[in-house]
Amino acid sequence: MVIYKIMNIKDLYIKAIRLQFLSTDEGLYLYNNSPTSELMFVANEIRKKLNPGNIVGWIIDRNVNISNICSCCCKFCNFYRRKNASDAYITTIEQYKEKINRLYELGGNQLLLQGGLHPELGLKFYMDLFQKLKKEYPSLKLHALSPPEIVHISRMEGKTYRAILLSLIEAGLDSLPGGGAEILSDRVRKIISPRKCTSGEWLEVMRQAHALGIRTSATMMFWHIETKKERLEHLELLRKLQSEKSKNSPGFVAFIPWPFQDKGTILEKKGIKNTITAEEYIRTLAISRIMLPNIKTIQASWLTAGIETAKLCLHSGANDMGSIMIEENVVSSAGVNWKMDKNIITQAITNAGFIPFQRGTVPL
Ligand code: SF4
Fold this sequence. Notes:
The protein is an alpha/beta fold.
């Protein structure tokens, strides 16, 4: 029995290192049974094939929130406010300019621009905003909105996702972040974010973005109410969508898994806490690398996992450290307060045995 189990695991390792697709059940078997050192080894072998040369990307960008007004009320979110709240805001052009000038001074040129699902701001608002920013800063890259926001605008306007995306691209959208995926299971979504788009809608927005040839990223927020199998199914859905895109489309250029941040959230009040250990984060990142051989970059979320764990992730399949985040308001409102600057991030990558590479936009 033991011999059969070892053989089976070895077969799965070989299949994974050959960049063949593991089924959800095969991935789950490794996730449940493989020693952490072996998962790390296999994921690292895949990373070396997909990203040879020990180069680890990082970026200076700025996360600016368009507004904190949101009608969605996700149970894991402390960031949103009702429209009439005393601290509700919509960022002004003058505030954008101040933030972008600082970003340029620090050597960055990309804004990660996201907000809540504002009940009144429609397509024209976002188009005007993107056009104004691009006119003022022609070299600025807008990594902006996310599938739930596209679904929301599409419902408000009565237009297709494709039409909304086309208008936004024309106005200056460069790439679409993969926020709002959480876990792509409608069972989970109905509990933690019942008003947010369904998993099918999230995937359809990304399908349309890929058809239009813009770069996107994919995420997974885990360790709340989902099962391990649902995590693996999430990965399989992303892999399947990535397989559908045309060869000329970049599709998902990166995958970023991060653990749920519980502090002060409705979920925490209901007893759902973030109990993840560094080892469990590393195992989840490694199994993501193993399950997603058709997504080139896996990013370690130093912001949520911590710098030392992120360094270990570079030996477990990750080839990107993400952004030094000049400003971050969403996970920091749920208890995360790690700090990073250019020296710390390059030092961390070097100390882990890799070569830091400052990229200008989302991974290529
Ligand atoms: S996670 Fe996003 S969509 Fe959900 S409540 Fe927060 S701001 Fe709104």
